[in-house]
Amino acid sequence: MTILSKLSLNAKSGILVAVTALVVAYVRTFLQYDSYGWESIGAFLLSWFVHYLGVWLFIAISGAFVSRFAPVFLGKDLPREELSPNELLVYISLVVLVAAIVMFVLAHWPASGIYSE
Questions:
Q1: TM spans, by residue (predicted)?
Q2: DSSP single-letter state for residue 1
Q3: How many CB atoms lie within 10 A of CB 21?
Q4: Which of 95, 97, 98, 108 is the most buried (most CB within 10 A)?
Protein backbone atom coordinates (compact mmCIF):
# COMPACT_ATOMS: atom_id res chain seq x y z
CA MET A 1 0.00 0.00 0.00
CA THR A 2 1.49 3.32 -1.03
CA ILE A 3 1.41 6.57 0.87
CA LEU A 4 -0.79 8.22 -1.77
CA SER A 5 -3.45 5.52 -1.45
CA LYS A 6 -3.80 6.34 2.25
CA LEU A 7 -4.43 10.05 1.63
CA SER A 8 -7.86 11.58 1.23
CA LEU A 9 -9.13 12.90 -2.09
CA ASN A 10 -8.66 16.50 -0.90
CA ALA A 11 -5.03 15.83 0.04
CA LYS A 12 -4.33 14.17 -3.31
CA SER A 13 -5.94 17.10 -5.13
CA GLY A 14 -3.84 19.56 -3.13
CA ILE A 15 -0.65 17.66 -3.94
CA LEU A 16 -1.59 17.59 -7.62
CA VAL A 17 -2.13 21.37 -7.68
CA ALA A 18 1.19 21.94 -5.86
CA VAL A 19 3.08 19.71 -8.31
CA THR A 20 1.33 21.37 -11.25
CA ALA A 21 2.35 24.80 -9.95
CA LEU A 22 5.95 23.59 -9.54
CA VAL A 23 6.08 22.29 -13.12
CA VAL A 24 4.47 25.47 -14.50
CA ALA A 25 6.95 27.63 -12.54
CA TYR A 26 9.89 25.55 -13.80
CA VAL A 27 8.76 25.64 -17.44
CA ARG A 28 8.04 29.36 -17.29
CA THR A 29 11.44 30.04 -15.75
CA PHE A 30 13.10 28.04 -18.50
CA LEU A 31 11.13 29.68 -21.31
CA GLN A 32 11.45 33.22 -20.00
CA TYR A 33 15.03 33.25 -18.70
CA ASP A 34 16.56 30.30 -20.60
CA SER A 35 17.67 28.95 -17.24
CA TYR A 36 17.09 25.62 -15.55
CA GLY A 37 16.81 26.95 -12.04
CA TRP A 38 16.36 29.87 -9.72
CA GLU A 39 18.99 32.16 -8.21
CA SER A 40 18.06 31.40 -4.61
CA ILE A 41 15.72 29.37 -2.44
CA GLY A 42 13.68 32.51 -1.78
CA ALA A 43 13.22 33.14 -5.50
CA PHE A 44 12.19 29.50 -5.96
CA LEU A 45 9.64 29.61 -3.14
CA LEU A 46 8.23 32.95 -4.30
CA SER A 47 7.94 31.74 -7.89
CA TRP A 48 6.29 28.51 -6.79
CA PHE A 49 3.80 30.35 -4.55
CA VAL A 50 2.87 32.87 -7.26
CA HIS A 51 2.34 30.07 -9.77
CA TYR A 52 0.39 28.09 -7.16
CA LEU A 53 -2.00 31.02 -6.80
CA GLY A 54 -2.14 31.39 -10.58
CA VAL A 55 -3.00 27.72 -11.06
CA TRP A 56 -5.77 28.02 -8.45
CA LEU A 57 -7.13 31.12 -10.17
CA PHE A 58 -7.06 29.35 -13.53
CA ILE A 59 -8.83 26.32 -12.00
CA ALA A 60 -11.53 28.53 -10.49
CA ILE A 61 -12.18 30.43 -13.72
CA SER A 62 -12.03 27.31 -15.90
CA GLY A 63 -14.19 25.33 -13.48
CA ALA A 64 -16.84 28.04 -13.48
CA PHE A 65 -16.74 28.21 -17.28
CA VAL A 66 -16.97 24.42 -17.67
CA SER A 67 -19.79 24.15 -15.12
CA ARG A 68 -21.75 26.96 -16.74
CA PHE A 69 -21.31 26.19 -20.44
CA ALA A 70 -20.93 22.40 -20.59
CA PRO A 71 -24.70 21.86 -21.08
CA VAL A 72 -24.66 24.35 -23.97
CA PHE A 73 -21.98 22.39 -25.83
CA LEU A 74 -23.11 18.91 -24.82
CA GLY A 75 -26.82 19.52 -25.24
CA LYS A 76 -29.30 20.33 -22.52
CA ASP A 77 -31.35 17.19 -23.01
CA LEU A 78 -28.39 14.82 -22.72
CA PRO A 79 -28.39 12.93 -19.45
CA ARG A 80 -25.10 13.58 -17.69
CA GLU A 81 -23.93 13.74 -14.17
CA GLU A 82 -22.47 16.92 -12.75
CA LEU A 83 -18.76 17.01 -12.05
CA SER A 84 -17.86 17.51 -8.42
CA PRO A 85 -15.49 20.35 -7.50
CA ASN A 86 -12.73 17.80 -6.77
CA GLU A 87 -13.18 16.20 -10.19
CA LEU A 88 -13.01 19.59 -11.90
CA LEU A 89 -9.89 20.40 -9.89
CA VAL A 90 -8.19 17.16 -10.91
CA TYR A 91 -9.17 17.37 -14.59
CA ILE A 92 -8.12 21.00 -15.00
CA SER A 93 -4.89 20.47 -13.04
CA LEU A 94 -3.99 17.53 -15.25
CA VAL A 95 -4.69 19.55 -18.40
CA VAL A 96 -2.44 22.37 -17.15
CA LEU A 97 0.27 19.88 -16.13
CA VAL A 98 0.24 18.15 -19.50
CA ALA A 99 0.24 21.50 -21.34
CA ALA A 100 3.30 22.66 -19.37
CA ILE A 101 5.14 19.41 -20.08
CA VAL A 102 4.29 19.63 -23.79
CA MET A 103 5.55 23.22 -23.90
CA PHE A 104 8.81 22.14 -22.25
CA VAL A 105 9.27 19.27 -24.71
CA LEU A 106 8.48 21.50 -27.70
CA ALA A 107 10.97 24.10 -26.44
CA HIS A 108 13.67 21.40 -26.61
CA TRP A 109 12.51 19.89 -29.90
CA PRO A 110 15.10 20.26 -32.64
CA ALA A 111 14.06 22.30 -35.64
CA SER A 112 12.65 20.20 -38.44
CA GLY A 113 14.52 22.07 -41.16
CA ILE A 114 17.10 24.71 -41.86
CA TYR A 115 15.46 28.03 -42.62
CA SER A 116 18.60 30.00 -43.51
CA GLU A 117 19.02 28.36 -46.91
A1: 12-31, 43-67, 88-109
A2: -
A3: 24
A4: 97
pLDDT in tens, 43-94: 999 999 999 999 999 999 998 888 877 777 666 655 556 778 888 899 999 9
CA distance 37 to 41: 10
Which residue type does 35 have?
Answer: S
Distance CA 25, CA 57 (A): 15
C-alpha distance from residue 5 to each of 50, 84, 105 (Å): 29, 20, 30
Amino acid at 36: Y
CB atoms within 10 A of CB 41: 8
- Residue pair 97/20 in contact (Cβ under 8 Å)? The answer is yes
Nearest to 20 by CA among 85, 84, 95: 95
Give the C-alpha separation, 21 to 18, whole Å.
5
